Amino acid sequence: MLKHRNLILWSLLGCMFVALVGYSYSVSTQTKPGSLGELLSDRTWLNNWPRWLDMPLQKWTNDVIAWLVQTYGWIFDAVNAFLLGILVSLLNALTYLPWPVVILLVVALTYVLSGRKWGTTLLVGACLFFIGFLSPRFWDKAMQTTGVMLIAILLCIVIGMPVAIAMSRSNRLRNAILPILDLMQTIPSFCYLIPGIMLFGLGAVPAIIATFIYAVPPLIRLTDLGIRLVDPEIIEAAESFGASPRQKLFIVQIPLALPNIMQGINQCTMMALALVVIASMIGTRGLGDEVLLGLQQLNVGRALEAGIAIVLLAIVLDRITQAYGDTLQKRKVKAEK
Amino acid sequence: MKISSKLLVAAAVVLGLLMSVPSAHACDKIEMGDFDWNSAKLHSAISKFILEKGYGCTVKVTTGSTLPIMTALYKGQLDVVMEVWYDNIIDQFKPHEEEGTVKRVGVNTPDSAQGFYVDAPTARKYNIKSVDDMKKPEIAMLFKDPENPSKGRMLNCISGWSCYTINLVKHHVYGLGKFYTIFDPGSSGALDAAIKGRFDKKQPIFTYYWEPTALMGMVDLVKLEEPAFNKADWDEMMKVVNDIKENGIEKLRMTKAVAYANMQLPVGINTRLEQAEPEVVEFLSKYTLSSAEVSKLLSHYLQKAGGEAEVTARHFLSTNDVWKNWVPEDVAKKVEAALSSS
Prior knowledge:
The complex is a heterodimer of chains A (about 325) and B (about 350). With about 325 residues, chain A is an all-alpha fold. In chain A, about 85% of the residues lie in helices and about 0% in strands. Chain A has 15 helices and no strands. Chain A has helices at about 1-25, 35-40, 45, 55-95, 100-115, 120-135, 135-170, 170-185, 190-200, 205-230, 230-240, 245-275, 275-280, 285-295, 300-335. Chain B is an alpha/beta fold and about 350 residues long. Chain B folds into 2 domains: about 1-110 and about 265-340, Periplasmic binding protein-like II (D-Maltodextrin-Binding Protein, domain 2); about 110-250, D-Maltodextrin-Binding Protein, domain 2 (3-Layer(aba) Sandwich). The radius of gyration of chain B is 25 Å and the shape is globular.
């Protein structure tokens, strides 16, 4: 039976391939060979890829984008307004607070999350100070970058976590989603940035969407892995106590996978920061546009200064998420003992 | 001694023959310089087609960025460059021009322009003609900035380009700052996508832009009137612009502000070509296309012709008759014959 199913699947794929080539040939506007005989006698088409053998993916994509923008433009506008609303209020809060207050709040947060580690706390405080110290212009820009990133990471968690949980429970779903994650990680970001602008308009929202696409795969992968790595004996024990699947997930699996999930969020944050400069090429305010401006003016010093500020911001976010992960890990080890 | 003098004579004869070759037949090899932007490619493709099919020349096109191509023209390694951004490279071009090695002949685009644009439907509906017409709260609300809803949004040119700071000063001096935020699109690709997106959604847009460009052939933007260009006021404005570039945005202050001067993009030749191929130079000096026409061709080039300049050149030559004014009748006939034969 399984053999038959494979046969059917493969022949179906084969038919689709032939149909695709046939369709591409029939819509091609290039000069085509007159007959099969011509193909056999004039073999120049074997040397250079023939013009008439060209999949019209370009046209399909352009048509779909144009159709989306023209008919469903208002949906994208609504999403844009919603995300922008959250971002603007977050930014207002971040820039309204005086900078010493922001530094103190972040330092206090680090102290608590890292389990009262003084070293990490001091490092984070120093990094934050140096962002503004490098150039006073950078403080507000760093806050803007942080704002865009926080929203993007929030979006990653809200959408990525349920996907990861579903993946961890079904192998078939996992096999379907993994190639999509590979695609999201490897496709050049400009491929979705420019259509993003046409759909959402210039500014932070296409950057948030782009950051989401780029940064969500590691979060999904690590969360899925974390849940799968939970000791089967512990799950068995939970089952024997009569835990429902939902209880099993929320009381046993997710808490035990938390160190891995934190690692995922950490990776997600780092990937998001990597996109900061590219995001500034589509008009997102932040540290990225200082780098871009420096390079456009051939002012290497200016670009480097801003580059270092981005690294400092990365260290801050990395230390906080990393330290929290460590704390969780320690708690877990303690609990297992 | 006797032999060498014979040799000399022979050499002189051969040399004389060689020298007379260009005038003996219609046209020889022409080295054309081309750039890596679309409008230049288009002009090169059109003139190449006419030169090859109409004048029987062999045209070799070399593509590069501004500096190497222009240097090759000064040195005589290239004969002609179809689109010279004269105002941008005036410092390098002028000395060679005074020496007599290069020359500007004709103007390939007489009316290239840059400035502030509004989409045509909005401009018609609200009767917006000039920058002053934009200074009304109800007009500003048409272009509402989603990040700062109390103002409209005007898209600026790309930060790092010189127009960026010039527009900042104009925005301030024209009094647009009270009504509009000024938004840096980050890159020209992003600016194009933003404009196209707004048009597809049928929403108003207020932006800096320039022509001829492919986008101008796809969308209908109306250029707003500004105080007319004059050198004195422009220089006054540039003082503030340069002050901002050196000392930061705090130096933004009231000054004069006027429109951008319309740039003429001439055809540049090495003067050697004038002696070698006077008929070709005659054609090059007549070569001219309006900015609107170039924009239309550019959008054909990018959208219909799949980025193939020769296809667009053929499309232009077979659908438009304006080029027949550039060449004698017999040449036009030959070009037409070449168009219909393939």
